[in-house]
Amino acid sequence: MKHISVFIMVLALSACLSVGCGREDPFVDPGDFIGGGTGEIADSADDISGEIKEHFSDEVFSELSADTSSDGAVTVAPTDGVYTISESGTYLFKGKYGGIELGADGLSLHLIFDGAEIASDGVALDGSAHKKAKVVLTLIGENFVSSSADGENAVHIKGSLSLNGTGSLRVTSGKNAIKVSKELTVVDCSLALTAANHAVSALSVSACGCNIQVLSAGKDGLNAECDDGTTEFTAEEGFVYLKNVDYSCETAGDGIQADTVVYIDGGSYDIKTKGEFVADTTENRTKYRLETDDFRYIRNGNDYQKVASDYMGRDAMYALSQGCKGIKVGEIEYPDPNDPDKEIAVTEGDYAIIIAGGTFIIDSTDDGIHANSGDLSVSGGELTVSTYDDALTSDVLTKITGGTVSVTKSYEGVEGGYVEISGGTVNITAQDDGINAACDDTSVIEHIIISGGEVYVDAGGDGIDSNGTILISGGKTYVAGPTSNMDCSIDSERGTVVTGGYLFAVGPLGMVETPAQNSTQCVVSFARSRSIAAGTNLSLTENGNAIVTFQTPKACQSVIISCPELVQGNTYQIYGGDSSLCEFTVSKIITSVGSSGGIGNPGGNAPGGPGGMRPGGGTAPGGW
Q1: Is residue 372 over pLDDT 50?
Q2: Which member of 229, 288, 406, 516 has the lowest number of beta carbons within 10 Å of its beta carbon?
Q3: Domain-embedded: residue 552
Q4: Are residues 459 and 315 in the same domain?
Q5: Which of 481, 497, 501, 436 has its CA nearest to residue 612?
Q6: Do both 480 and 611 map to the same domain?
Q7: pLDDT at 157 over 80
């Protein structure tokens, strides 16, 4: 993990992404929502795209897309040797070359590759000796650049590099395929990259309307790092901005990694990261800089499985030798102005990862999408995530306002200090908690707010689990809980409040937590000593008419239902298939029915599990 010390400054980027420093947490008391609370999610940061796009400059994409003319180009004859460019201008390369070298400082170059092949035992396109170069590389037809030397970049520009044209470029390297010390911009063209280290490493990466394939990389696919000498946090560096890009990768490191912001708007992304697991030995701890907390995996046949931090088994423990997350923004640390001996990381107030649109298939050994500093926003697109670890996670706020998120495999599904869902469809399968609000910062009062959208959770641990509070004020929430009595479908340390929407949660009987009495929408909590079999169609009915139904994917003994149709004074039934399980009259906000075992912990401290339901008699997706 790279730590960059910089002074904190208020800049345009943080202003446009801000959700407010020192967030006033509304969940100190669930009762705050009674009478005046609406459960609305603050949308001060909803319109986050304008200034980002302006700063990252879509106009640059348009201008670069048009800058493909070869007028006045110097045609360079093929040569086995290295061709040295000492003057600014336009140069056309066709055929085979032993290398291209920038031979002077401050060059402004337009290079055109038209069926060019540059193969070198050093740096093939070498601008590493001179700073401030500005290079535009236009691709026509198929082109190849390779370095056969170990530890050498194939393309190394110490200034900025822009690639355009309708052609393609295949790059192979024993180190980084493309290394740029300043900005890398790519439009229209196609890249196929193979690298022992990063496929792309630059101060910033911007791309539009192009195709980038990382065939293999020993570290990251796209890597944007701030300068080591950076002294302030700005939007000038450390970001990855992708607009309508077709990107695919197979990496041993992160698929996409940035120091400040990853912003993706449209395109398709097929990201595969495959990490190496190493045993807990003194040699591996030293070699890979690993600590005790890193060893969280046990071997399960030919596969590996993450376990809880307090795992008490006797299995040999393993860790990933390096981070290999799908999309990641790392932790950048800044000096604390109040204490020169301490450093602090970016926290709330800045969106670190923004998914505005696109189709994503992420298959990662490590986390799927991880904001180590700042907030994570998903407002559009279709995301399918499979991971050994957490699917979507941030250290601060994870916010979903639109799009479709499908977590097919995870240790924990959606996680953050705060988790807020106000739109879209979220379908989660998790080995442990489905949705989890947790933070190491003791000043954070965690919360989960579901105010809209459709949420489906199938969890082996708690279904929805907050170290602080839970508010359900809208949308449709379906939770199929665990089978273990040590966990439950809904778990909050400081209480769960229901003020609107649909909730259908099933789980075991051991540690049932019912919502707090100061909820404003009626809730029924039903329990029975005998198990309800997996695959049973559960229905809430009134006068023979189904209000909501849910096919439980696993055996359960407790059922919690809340919906606008539950009205005090009315009588309802819960059916399991064609059999009536109970009949009850709603007498107050929280109505408990059936076996007393495990019931009667309103607002208490309990864990939770997963599920699904659909209003109007339908069934939830995925066979639930």
Answers
A1: yes
A2: 229
A3: yes
A4: no
A5: 481
A6: yes
A7: yes
Residue 287, SS3? helix
Asked whether residue 423 is domain-assigned, the answer is no
Let me know whether 314 and 453 are in one domain: no
Task: Report the number of distinct structural domains present in the chain.
Answer: 2
Residues 468 and 608 in one domain: yes
- Which residues share a beta bridge with 559? 506, 526
Give the residue among 180, 262, 265, 254 at the shortest CA–CA distance from 217: 254
Q: What value does the mean pLDDT take over residues 456-471? A: 94
Residues 6+ apart with CB under 8 A from 257: 220, 222, 223, 224, 240, 325, 327, 328, 329, 330
DSSP category for residue 294: G
Render pLDDT for 525-570 as a digit per residue (tens, 0 to 9). Answer: 999 988 999 999 999 999 989 999 999 999 999 999 999 999 999 9
The Cα 576–Cα 399 span in angstroms is 35
pLDDT exceeds cutoff 70 at 227? yes
pTM: 0.87
551 occurs within a structural domain: yes
Which amino acid is present at 455?
A: V
Label residue 594 left, alpha or beta by phi (over 0 means left) and psi (-120 to 50 means alpha).
left
For residues 240 and 261, the answer to whether their CB atoms sit within 8 Å is yes
Determine, yes or no, domain membership for 287.
yes
State the residue range of the domain holding 312.
277-320
